[in-house]
């Protein structure tokens, strides 16, 4: 059997962790022929719960799962890690905005970035799920100067999938009919789901829906879906978030023509260099590339700029806090 890929999951005893770990162990993260070794990072109070989840993983007798390690030490958890899913953070509660979480969660991602820098494998790929995901990813990335910046990503794939589902329902088409969907900006209520490049049945999506529906229903429904789930469930989304994390890493490793990824900006599309913002991306040879050359109209420009402005404010706030 091939050497197992070490996948580190932080917040492993949480609700996303519970929805994620079994899918990783079954081969859905990397591929049906790729053995994996799981490393579960938790805070000391939650290690026992993570041990319970590990017992259940054992009980599945997954053919691809070659071992499970459980620890409360980031230096152990990230030692030799090839893939790191940074999920552990405090979830947003009803009424909270992501800005409220910056100081609470930022402190988690600095030591984790440092541990990744010191101990991870050379091919480490990092996906940050814990909110505020984009800025948490920036904190981790800035604290890992020896790791190429483009190995740090944040998750806007859930927003992307939500946009596909909402548009498919509106146009009464299967989600597979929709191509080239893009989420720009922050994983927050300022995100911009772009229908001017999305295509349905080969035609531009924005031309197939009312402008009023696009601006007043579609965009806010997608952008505020996280809050709507919290309102309905009393808890933030978990299975759909885990599903999006699986999609993100699978496509990163195995390739895709077009999806939405938050990664360090190289200045493309006028997005401030260095901030971790969502772009239309393809994955080629195991690396994300921002899809270039799209025409950005006035409406899109304003929406992208507004979300990027929020990200630069978040960056400035964590700089003030000494986290980057
Ligand atoms: P949860 O509270 O159920 O689980 C979080 C887990 O993280 C807990 O078990 C906790 O003990 C652990 N944890 C806290 N600090 C840690 C640390 N320093 N190291 C390791 N583990 C730590 O929360 P959840 O519902 O699983 O959500 C996790 C995060 O994901 C939240 O921040 C949530 O807002 C976010 N989220 C992001 C998206 C997205 O699309 N990016 C979607 C849904 C949820
Ligand atoms: C989501 O999008 O479901 C999560 O980010 C939850 C939240 O805090 O909005």
TrEMBL record:
Membership in a protein family: Belongs to the LDH/MDH superfamily. MDH type 2 family.
List residues binding substrate.
92, 98, 131, 162
Keywords annotated in UniProt: NAD, Oxidoreductase, Tricarboxylic acid cycle
Active site per UniProt: 187 (proton acceptor)
Enzyme class, UniProt record, top EC level: oxidoreductase
Q: Report which gene this protein is encoded by.
A: mdh
Q: What is this protein called?
A: Malate dehydrogenase
> Which HAMAP family does the annotation name?
Malate_dehydrog_2 (MF_01517)
Identify the Gene3D superfamilies for this entry: Lactate dehydrogenase/glycoside hydrolase, family 4, C-terminal (3.90.110.10), NAD(P)-binding Rossmann-like Domain (3.40.50.720)
Q: Which Pfam families match?
A: Ldh_1_C, Ldh_1_N
